[in-house]
């Protein structure tokens, strides 16, 4: 049996999820139902569970506060009415992000992902397990990016973006008008969200747009330096293991 916990503060949503699980997932046993960040932190600190169904807006705050207080490596299926949290959700061990009202079909697909991952040998280390999770993450073609400017929000279109850089554990987006903004997402998440045709992760520090690339300088057969149409203080070298893939991407 799959031992699961539901963390949700709306009675209707709890009852609907339980009904769907009872009707179509007889291998899932709900062993606890919690409705707040505080209760979830307390319960998850002392109990083990196979699967978490987690709403984002709980009675006493945002569910992401749970991850700040408890080290959770249990697979999570997020259930929410708000799509804007999707990118942040996949920073956790999320295997799916279900928008309310949850349909039987979408729930079934999420459980198929979970059951498949459950067959993975437990000897895998965390990096390999995370890689498997990423293979199941839905790849989207994000068309816009929201950045914060003090107490204001600015929307950037994909065509405005030249490249992203990770600097001192902070991700920044550089635009074609030579401005730089912090982004609340890792390069890994952005890479999975942005159109594959337009952006390429050349190394751990840079995710660059096709349109900003002007020249390639071959330092050696396996070392390539990328020159951009915008000034960059950092030298951009393509990771050795990505040179072939990068050259192929440029010619697509």
Automatic annotation (TrEMBL):
GO MF term (any one): DNA binding
SUPFAM superfamilies linked to this entry: CheY-like
Pfam families, alphabetized: LytTR (PF04397), Response_reg (PF00072)
Keyword vocabulary terms for this entry: DNA-binding, Phosphoprotein
Domain Response regulatory: 3-115
Modified residues (4-aspartylphosphate): 55
Organism superkingdom: Bacteria
The keyword Manganese is annotated on this UniProt entry: no
Every HTH LytTR-type domain range: 145-252
PANTHER family attached to this UniProt entry: STAGE 0 SPORULATION PROTEIN A HOMOLOG (PTHR37299:SF1), TRANSCRIPTIONAL REGULATOR-RELATED (PTHR37299)
Name this polypeptide is given: DNA-binding response regulator
């Amino acid at each position: 049996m799959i031992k699961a916990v539901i963390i949700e503060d709306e009675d209707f949503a709890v009852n609907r999820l339980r009904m769907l699980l009872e009707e179509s997932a007889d291998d899932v046993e709900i062993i606890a139902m919690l409705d707040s960040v505080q209760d979830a932190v307390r319960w998850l600190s002392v109990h083990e569970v196979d699967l978490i169904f987690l709403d984002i807006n709980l009675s006493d705050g945002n569910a992401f506060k749970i991850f700040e207080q408890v080290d959770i490596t249990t697979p999570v299926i997020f259930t929410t009415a708000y799509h804007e949290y999707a990118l942040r959700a996949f920073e956790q061990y999320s295997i799916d992000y279900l928008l309310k009202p949850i349909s039987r079909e979408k729930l079934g697909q999420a459980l198929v992902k979970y059951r498949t991952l459950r067959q993975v040998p437990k000897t895998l280390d965390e990096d390999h397990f995370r890689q498997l999770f990423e293979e199941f993450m839905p790849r989207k073609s994000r068309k816009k990016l929201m950045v914060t400017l003090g107490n204001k929000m600015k929307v950037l279109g994909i065509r405005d973006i030249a490249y992203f850089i990770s600097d001192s554990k902070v991700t920044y987006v550089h635009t074609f008008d030579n401005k730089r903004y912090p982004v609340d997402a890792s390069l890994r998440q952005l890479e999975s969200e942005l159109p594959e045709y337009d952006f390429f992760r050349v190394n751990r520090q840079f995710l660059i747009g096709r349109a900003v690339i002007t020249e390639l300088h071959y330092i050696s057969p396996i070392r390539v330096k990328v020159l951009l149409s915008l000034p960059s203080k950092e030298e951009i070298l393509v990771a050795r293991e990505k040179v072939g893939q990068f050259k192929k991407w440029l010619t697509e």
